[in-house]
Design brief:
Elements lengths: L1 E7 L3 H6 L1 H13 L3 E6 L6 E5 L4 H9 L2 H4 L3 E7 L9
Antiparallel strand pairs: 1-3, 1-4, 2-3
Amino acid sequence: MFVLLSRYLKPLDEVDRHLAEHRAFLEKHYAARRLLISGPQDPRTGGVIVTHDITREQAEAMLAEDPFVREGIAEYEFIEFKPTRPINP
């Protein structure tokens, strides 16, 4: 499992121009059950994505599709961890 931390490399007006396409990218991967949760950092300097049951290679391939990466708007840091306790429903 990974926490993917993005850091914006461009101004927020450029981030916002690609936000709808980025959200569509996220929805595609939520539907494929690759993502658990995501959202912007506060303050809005980037975002956070938590993956579900994918390898590092799969995460890298997934992020290569992200319009924020493709357009040079953001870069990601990978933090791998092994969850030991699930979320209570």
